[in-house]
Amino acid sequence: MTDELAGVRQGYDRWAAMYDHERNPMQAIEQPQMRAAVGDVHGKRVLDLGCGTGRHALWLAAQGADVVAVDFSAGMLAEARKKSGAERVQFVALDLAQPLPYSAEFDLVVSGLVLEHLRELEPFFAAAHNVLKSGSRAVISAMHPAMFLRGAQARFTDPATDELVMPGSLAHSVSEFVMAAVRAGFQVENVREFSPDQAFAQAFPRAERYIGWPMLVLLELRND
């Protein structure tokens, strides 16, 4: 039986050096929505699950948050640690398939574009719930499962070899996202879906074929 996720860590290690330089429309549509959803983070303790090259973690720290950012890709973490402001973030090598070494100590959890790389959703949402203080929030984004119907998933072209690399993805439905969160004990504040328009596609031409098609889902959750 083929393990669709066997190459995720190695794939992201290979992707790391070019990840921030591709004008990736998925990151572009996600980032402003994530920032708007988290709101004011000054003075809050924040955990970034699957931080990649630190695009959310570094912004959160710049806004005055105390940030712990975890990822299992050494390549991604190495790129994150090179960036301006990285000294404000505690970057930690952790596999999200393993238990997190935190408990009820964060005011906010964020996770950007990670869910397609997880086989089981419920342990992830349970871990996110368990690390939060009571009355705190999680904001979690994912590539919309409708993208899989268009043959899309996380991928990049290795400039050294021209090889198309797909680290490994699984299609989970929006209802699976929501129910995994609910079963973990979260209250669902909001579920929003986003599609590119013509103006976005002009700025990010790779999104043109997805105009009007859902690219992103964003979950806003509360731990009450």
Describe the structure.
The protein has one domain: Vaccinia Virus protein VP39 (Rossmann fold). The strands form 2 sheets. It has a 7-stranded mixed β-sheet, with helices on both faces. A two-stranded antiparallel ribbon has the order 6-7. Helices cover about 30% and strands about 25% of the residues. It is globular and about 45 Å long. The relative contact order is 0.18. α5 (about 120-130) packs across α6. It is an alpha/beta fold and about 220 residues long. The mean pLDDT is about 95. β6 and β7 (about 165) form a beta hairpin. The longest helix is centred in the first third of the chain and has 14 residues, at about 25-40. The chain has helices spanning about 10-15, 25-40, 55-60, 75-80, 120-130, 175-185, 200-205, and strands spanning about 45-50, 65-70, 90-95, 105-110, 130-145, 155-160, 165, 185-195, 215-224. It contains 7 helices and 9 strands, in the order ααβαβαββαβββαβαβ.
Number of strands: 9
CATH class assignment: Alpha Beta
CATH topology: Rossmann fold
Strand-residue proportion: 25-35%
Sheet with the most strands: spatial strand order: 3-2-1-4-5-9-8
**What would you report as the Rg, rounded to the nearest angstrom?**
17 Å
CATH architect. name: 3-Layer(aba) Sandwich
What tags apply to this protein structure?
224 residues; 7-stranded mixed beta sheet; globular; two-stranded antiparallel sheet; alpha/beta
